[in-house]
Amino acid sequence: MHSPTVPVTDYRRTASRRPWAGLPAPVRQELTDLLGGSVTSVRPAGGGFTPGFAAVLSHGEGRSIFVKAAPASDAFVYPAYAREAQVAPLLPPDMPAPRLLGTRTVTAADTDWLLLAYEAVDGTMPGHPWTGTDLAAIEASCTASIRLLSNFPGHLSGSPVSQDITAVPSPFQAVADGGAAPWFLPSLTAGDARRLQELWELSPEALAGDSVLHGDLRPDNILLRSGKALFCDWNFLGTGAAWIDWVGVLPYARGGGLDVDSWLTRSALTRGVPPEHIDAFLAALLAYMIHSGCQPEVESSPQLRSHGRHTAQLIHAWTLSRWAQK
Q1: Which residue in 117, 214, 249, 326 has the fewest CB atoms around it within 10 Å?
Q2: Are the beta carbons of 81 and 68 closer than 8 angstroms?
Q3: pLDDT at residue 76, as a whole number
Q4: 111: burial class by Cβ within 10 Å (0-12, 13-18, 19+)?
Q5: Those residues with Cβ within 8 angstroms of residue 314's Cβ, 6 or more apart along the chain or in another chain
């Protein structure tokens, strides 16, 4: 049975963001001060799944910065930006990430706003199209990140990725017991679901480790510039096996036509990892994306559930392909 068509997510155009004119005047003024001159151009970030303000601000043909802004009244975006403001200053100077220029807190209409300013990166998002060169750059940055974050403060490194990813219930046992498969994965059989449930249960062991990880690496959190991959949005920091971030990107690259199985053996991050540990991570990530894809649509993030369904289909297809090769 073929899966129903789920729109392929264009990660360059997923965000529905607050416009510049919708920011309170004190917030606009503080961002203008961070820029160091009058704002002559506002280029909103098209990627991402939150309504938080995020854009490149420019002053004429000269200075540009990338900024974010969120009010304390936003129960999701504000804590995410606050976590990012906590982590970003602690990243090593040679980290493959845009450089944080500063943070500010400003009050507007009795509400605190958190502002972040980064260097503006003139780069591109991977996947348009996916190329081996771009994937090599991502692998190199994943490897560098593990090394550079080895001394990151332990009390700020987050919770285990395995704990976060399995916090949602597994859908597999219900399907294994004869329940219906998710509507966007009708080809998920009871037998396959039983196998996925076993792998899901293995994931805490498979993902164990003390490496500090980005925790949310996907195409819209990566910028390619001059042959180097920069990782953005450091607000889901976690710990686990060193290869997790790297393998988490591969379903998208495979969906773009790359032979990612060969990359598993090519990369030092995954060359010696037991195949069942890779499968266990894919099972846990698949369960997470199925759960996301089945939730009600989010008005402020109209592409979020489509992203979950699209990613679930990519992971499921790769998992079946891996099993067929054994």
Answers
A1: 326
A2: yes
A3: 87
A4: middle
A5: 251, 252, 254, 255
So where are the chain's domains?
Answer: 20-119, 132-324
- Closest by CA position to 169, among listed 292, 287, 282: 287
Q: Which two tokens stand for residue 121?
A: 């990166």
**109-118, 127-136, 300-309: the lowest-pLDDT one:** 300-309
Kindly tell me the burial class for residue 274, based on how many C-beta atoms sit within 10 Å of its own C-beta (0-12, 13-18, 19 or more): exposed
Asked if pLDDT for residue 16 goes beyond 70, the answer is no
Mean pLDDT of the chain: 94
- 26 pLDDT more than 70: yes
User: What whole-number distance in Å separates Cα of residue 57 and Cα of residue 31?
Assistant: 9
* Fold held by 132-324: Aminoglycoside 3'-phosphotransferase; Chain: A, domain 2 (3.90.1200)
Run of H or E residues at 279: helix 275-294
Distances (CA, A) of 264 to 143, 249, 322: 13, 12, 12
- For 124, the 3-state DSSP assignment is strand
Residue 110 confidence (pLDDT) above 90: yes
Before 153, cis peptide (omega within 30)? no
49-74 per-position pLDDT tens digit: 777 899 999 998 789 999 999 999 99
Domain 20-119: homologous superfamily in CATH:
Phosphorylase Kinase; domain 1 (3.30.200.20)
